[in-house]
Amino acid sequence: MAASCAFAADFSKVVFTGVWERTSDYARSSAPAAGFSVSVTGGSVSAELEGEAFFEIFVDGVDQGFVRTSERKVYPIAKLQGKHLVEVFHRSESLPGDFKVYSVKVEGGELLEQSVRLDRKVAFIGDSYTVGYGVEANGPEDGTPFEQTNTTKAYSFLLSRKLKADYRIFAFSGRGLVRNYAGIVPDWTIPKLIEHTVPGMAHEGKGGPAYDTSWHPKVVVVFIGINDFQGDAPRPTEDEFVKEYHRLLAKLRLEHKGVKFLLLSTRVWPESLLIPAVERVYNEELAAGNNDVSLKSVVTENGALHGHPSKHSQAELAQELLPIVARLGGWLSR
């Protein structure tokens, strides 16, 4: 007989995906597409959440829309009959800031154990293109970034789902490798942000743990540099950019033995400085004997908010990268 109210405050039957800090009281994150899931038999699923955020809800892999959160309270997630998998993903950005999950419950049903596949692991390091910034917008001025950003429509999330892979998305709008867009918060570039489990809080001087590198991806997709070379000067020199890129790859190699890298680039307004810079990184890595790198230049249709890739373009990019990442991970045969 199903329990009338089953609580999972200890998260024993909740599966977390993406970058999270776990404590005895809550799970906390600021990462794009950080998610949690429960397997249930019927009932009304709800979660006690806190933080300014949008969460996309999936039932059995089908998008059911979103819930917007703010103050700490119990938010309804889904009302179901029968056995289902319910997934909830952070679709907006929390930089600065964070969000917390305190508990998940199902009334009139039961929480079940989940069978989780962990053998495929892929990480993404990027900026707004990887976040899915403004992807829901129907034009360059349609709404706000908070409302229109949806990482579940970004190539990073879509590609992970196609691969049926566990993932981590380290992506931050407006941030670069050496220089952030328009020189904003110069001390918080991508290499520094990824050192923190909850960079949205560290960014505000509120601390938090260092990122735990014990989760080892097989493939890391690196799509950085748009903000370094976009907009008004000053920009980094190519030498500065290439040096920091090599430094980042070397750091990741030390942390994740045997990892493969896919280096992405695209044309950046007003000059196409990123593509040749990333090509130089690739060629110098090969010359140094590092055969763990692959290179891909991509083209996107930037009709969404503030000139960012549209949903259609993000989906196309995920499909384009699928065979490349599958090959790098050794996942083509399965």
Kindly describe this structure.
- Helix content is 24%, strand content 30%.
- The chain is of the alpha+beta class and 334 residues long.
- It has 2 domains: 108 residues, Sandwich (Jelly Rolls), CATH 2.60.120.260; 209 residues, SGNH hydrolase (Rossmann fold, 3-Layer(aba) Sandwich), CATH 3.40.50.1110.
- The strands form 2 sheets. Strands 1, 2, 3, 4, 5, 6, 7, 8, 9 and 10 form a 10-stranded antiparallel β-sheet that branches. It has a 5-stranded parallel β-sheet with strand order 12-11-13-14-15, with helices on both faces.
Looking at this protein, list some descriptive labels.
2 domains, Jelly Rolls, five-stranded parallel β-sheet, 334 residues, globular, alpha+beta, Rossmann fold, disordered N terminus, 24% helix
The dominant shape is globular
- Rg value: 20 Å
The helical percent reads 10-25%
The number of domains is 2
CATH architecture of the largest domain: 3-Layer(aba) Sandwich
Per CATH, the superfamily of the largest domain is: SGNH hydrolase
Average pLDDT, to the nearest integer? Answer: 94
User: Would you state the CATH class of the largest domain?
Assistant: Alpha Beta
What are the low-pLDDT stretches, counting only 5+ consecutive residues below 50?
1-9
User: What's the total helix number?
Assistant: 9
Give the topology, please.
Blueprint: E1 5-7, E2 15-17, E3 21-22, E4 27-29, E5 35-50, E6 53-59, E7 62-69, E8 73-90, E9 99-107, E10 110-112, E11 121-126, H1 128-131, H2 145-148, H3 155-163, E12 166-171, H4 190-193, H5 199-202, E13 219-223, H6 226-229, H7 238-255, E14 260-265, H8 274-287, E15 293-297, H9 311-329
Parallel strand pairs: 11-12, 11-13, 13-14, 14-15
Antiparallel strand pairs: 1-9, 2-5, 3-4, 4-9, 5-8, 5-9, 5-10, 6-7, 6-8
Helix pairs in contact: 3-9, 7-8
